[in-house]
Amino acid sequence: MATREFAAHESHAHAAPQGFIRKWVFSLDHKVIGLQYYFLALTAVFVGMFLSLLMRIHLIWPTVALPLVGEIKPETYLSLLTMHGTIMVFFVLTTAPQGGFGNYFLPIQIGAADMAFPVLNMLSFWVTFLGYIVILAAFFVTGGAPLHGWTGYPPLSALPSAGPGEGLGADLWVISIGLFCVGALMSALNFITTTLDMRAKGMTMMRMPLTCWAWFITAILGLLAFGVLLSAAILLLLDRNAGTSFYVPLVIVNGQLAAHKGGSPLLWQHLFWFFGHPEVYIAILPAMGLCSQLVSVFSRKPIFGYKAMVYAILSIGLLGFMVWGHHMFMSGMSPYTAFAFSIMTMAIGVPSAIKTFNWLGTLWGGRIRLSSPMLFAIGFVSLFVSGGISGPFLAQPTLDIPLHDTAFVTGHFHLIMGVASIFGIFAATYYWFPKMFGRMMSESLARWHFWFTFVGTYCIFMPMHYAGMAGQPRRYSQFTELHYLEHLIPLNRFITFAAFVTISAQFLFLFNLFWSMKFGKKASDNPWEATTLEWTTATPPPHDNFGGRTPVVYNGPYEYSVPGAPRDYVMQTDPTVIAAH
Amino acid sequence: MAALTTTVLTDDPSSALGGKGGMPPTRDGGDDDNFGSGPLSFDMRLRRARLGMVVAMTAIVMVFVSFSSAYLVRQGLPTLDPHTNTLVRDWFPVPLPRLLLINTLVLLLSTLTMELARRQVAREAALTQIAAVPGDAQKQEAGIQWLGLTVLLGFTFLTGQWMVWRELAARGFYLSTSSSSSFVYLLTGTHGLHLLGGVVALVAAGGASLLRKPVTSRLVVLDVTGWYWHFMAFLWIYILCLLEFAR
């Protein structure tokens, strides 16, 4: 392996591959691999969004037959729920910010020619791609897609006889998760080694853009978390297919005693959430790093408290591993354990607040340019606060127990983990599109896209908090016949209409993306007047990123409005301007 | 705090402060002398490969930490007896075959030969670098012998583990017989698979050696595989202790 790795790295000594297959399919170039991840996530997000729309329609018109799926039975609803969650969490939120933009821009931003192990990088993508195909295949096998939710709690997920979709469909789900873990682990290995070992001369850790810090910490979280999920998935696969009883207790299914005994469903929950909570940060940290970058670039000010930002990312990552129990307050855990998890969870509020105030501090008094990337970055801060503020509610066992199985939690995690992270992806797309494709995206379309999405997502997820507090359970396929929830039907109808509008607005983005690739205005090398290394190279970057040059870094990443400098920004590679005083 | 920094123009990059400006020590950056288009120097390749291996080992540790915690948690759990409707302890310790001890000795011996193979090639590489001539055929042969022996011992260990499984099965302990036997198969199997990966890497290194690839390429492979191999031995001792003393 290692020999091939190095041979591959040395291939940069030669010209870029010319054939279509080597250049665009089995490419070793981190930029192409980044685009592959990005477009994988783009297809996945539309699949996931379509599933959510079906669910929303079913909730308010439960008897209506829908195109492609017909009338939605309760088990179909659960399949939609499971596949929506799995596809969105793994193949969108984990894939696009880290695999996509991380792959493309980490090496360029630290001044490297490629990732440390290009062959491994290609393998990570193709293993992830295989996982994606496998999960999609679950729709088309006998029994259909699994029912057990993206969290896959046993015994439901461990017993093929537990329901339609729990047969081959659930096996495919487990295999897909396992493959995804392998891909994510290989990718994390590459990110960590690249960050530690391949920084250009002068690029100290404390001169790295905060995006690189975020990708680095995310990779460490991935390294520690995906190994645990992989183990958990292996045990689940054995329980399902080899007759073991890791997770399955003595259980009666459809009147029959299953051939398992003595396993613990809670064991899965512990292993799963030991992965699952860091996973939340795997999804959101890259967006945080990007947001820090953008508020600085578009406020024309250095980021407020660079070091505090770095330490906040580090402590969020560290604390993220100590809070998994807050997903399990309902499991009957000891109140003392719950108390410990509760305190640790609320402690995450501290570094999160540091980040938020530093973003606001950066905006304060800045010469703000409200370009589309900046709009999405500010939108991210807004969503991060709105979604984050309900975190301390749910961190308290006494509040979590009544709220846990309601739409309140759905609203909470969609705002903070889903939409906030998606805003990060949008911001990154609008920001880096000129570098990636050499053209600008349409600014007016981007603004329409922003306002529809921003207002739309608030209209979808804010009312869910209220519905949850009013007692609307989550995961139920039908609630319209329940007398005590009747008054929530108009609210739910509103949410569904908002979802229609918001989803429609995403086609503006899709159109803008592909139209601008061909017809957008030509972009200069540094259209945003930003300082980091990717803006020092050609647009789009050449095969070895810097065209044979070796970047040398003299400055920090956020030198904006520097007194005495000829322009209001100083490139990281600019040797003449040096901090003194 | 960057926001409060004021900046002036100067030509002297050495007057830099902290993370703000100027040229830091070159050791801190990554690609010091070999950037992009040129081949990497041997030391850098070795450093990068070792770093990658340490990171990979961390991931493997996490897999076994998960299995261990599952093992210990499951061990302490009672289960419901449907006949008496009471909670009973159903954890049966699996008597480990004595063959495992012999396998352990084989693996420990293989770490020794692995180290000898690694040092042999390291010496060869050092000589090549100093004298700028290819290492002589005789020494290359010696390296190959230790490498071959390690591969042989690796296969012996894996065969031994297979025989342990056969013996367990003959005694009626299958994968799904009880939770304790499930864990024995799980832990030994996962370790065996990882070791097999190491054997494949060594065979690849041997192939590179026979094909007269540059000695430095082989050293990088052998060096990191050496680390991996020692790690696998440590891991095995840990698994054996877990299965023996915490059953």
Distance between the termini of chain A: 50 Å
For CATH, the homologous superfamily of chain B is named as Cytochrome c oxidase, subunit III, four-helix bundle
For this structure, what is the CATH class of chain A?
Answer: Mainly Alpha
Radius of gyration of chain B: 25 Å
Describe the structure.
The complex is a heterodimer of chains A (581) and B (247). Chain A has 581 residues and is mainly α. Chain A has a single domain, classed as Cytochrome c oxidase-like, subunit I domain (Cytochrome C Oxidase, Chain A). In chain A, 62% of the residues lie in helices and 2% in strands. Chain A is built from 18 helices and 5 strands. The longest helix of chain A has 35 residues. Chain B is mostly helical and 247 residues long. Chains A and B meet through helix 1, helix 7, helix 8, helix 9 and strand 5 of A and strand 1, helix 1, helix 4 and helix 5 of B.
Secondary-structure blueprint of this entry?
The complex is a heterodimer of chains A (581) and B (247).
Chain A (H helix, E strand, L loop, with lengths): L1 H9 L9 H6 L4 H31 L4 E2 L3 E2 L2 H20 L1 H16 L7 H20 L30 H30 L12 H32 L10 E2 L2 E2 L7 H35 L6 H15 L14 H13 L1 H15 L8 H18 L1 H4 L2 H7 L3 H31 L5 H27 L19 H31 L57 E3 L2
Antiparallel strand pairs in A: 1-2, 3-4
Helix pairs in contact in A: 3-4, 3-5, 3-6, 3-18, 4-5, 5-7, 5-8, 6-7, 7-8, 8-9, 8-10, 9-10, 9-12, 9-13, 9-16, 10-12, 13-16, 13-17, 16-17, 17-18
Chain B lengths: L6 E3 L32 H34 L3 E3 L4 E3 L10 H33 L5 H34 L8 H32 L4 H31 L2
Antiparallel strand pairs in B: 2-3
Helix pairs in contact in B: 1-4, 1-5, 2-3, 2-5, 3-4, 4-5
Short description:
Chain A has 581 residues and is mainly α.
For this entry, give a set of tags.
heterodimer, A: 581 residues, mainly alpha, Cytochrome C Oxidase, Chain A, two-stranded antiparallel sheet, two-stranded antiparallel ribbon, 18 helices, 5 strands, 62% helix, disordered N terminus, B: 247 residues, Four Helix Bundle (Hemerythrin (Met), subunit A), 66% helix, elongated
